[in-house]
Amino acid sequence: AVNKHKDLLDLDDTLKDVISKDKIFVTFRKARTIGDSLVHSRYTRDSSNSNSKALGNINCGKCNLCKFFLSENTVKIQSLTTKQIHNINQSITCEDEHVIYVITDL
């Protein structure tokens, strides 16, 4: 469609001098993907301090989340469907953000 109307540039003397008809071409923009939206985490795991902290859930014992829902010192969780065991390799408290909780019926 652009090539079809390149002759319109000749109608305007200013455009004819500024824009050369043989230098006009069509480009397309790549559609956004989910990968364009994802970013790398700013947080890194410090392996030198991993032995000094307790791993798993750290229960404060004061808030409702810890009193009624968090099992203290849970360092492993097991999938109910696949029976695969996953280790918790960091310390998790009730004040941590962006935590996905696993709810099981005991």
Your description of this structure?
This protein has 106 residues and is largely without helices or strands. It is 14% helix and 9% strand. The strands form two sheets. Strands 1-4 form a two-stranded parallel sheet. The longest helix is centred in the first third of the chain and has 6 residues, at 13-18. It is rod-shaped and about 80 Å long.
What is the element layout, followed by pairings?
Elements: H1 13-18, H2 34-37, E1 56-57, H3 64-68, E2 76-78, E3 85-87, E4 91-92
Q: How much helix, percentage-wise, in residues?
A: 10-25%
Spell the H/E element sequence.
HHEHEEE
C-alpha Rg (nearest Å) = 30 Å
Provide the spatial order of strands within the biggest beta sheet: 1-4
Provide a count of the helices.
Answer: 3
Which ranges are low-confidence, i.e. pLDDT below 50, for 5 or more consecutive residues?
47-51
**Class of secondary structure makeup:** little secondary structure
**Distance linking N and C termini:** 67 Å
Major sheet size, sense and barrel closure = 2 strands, parallel
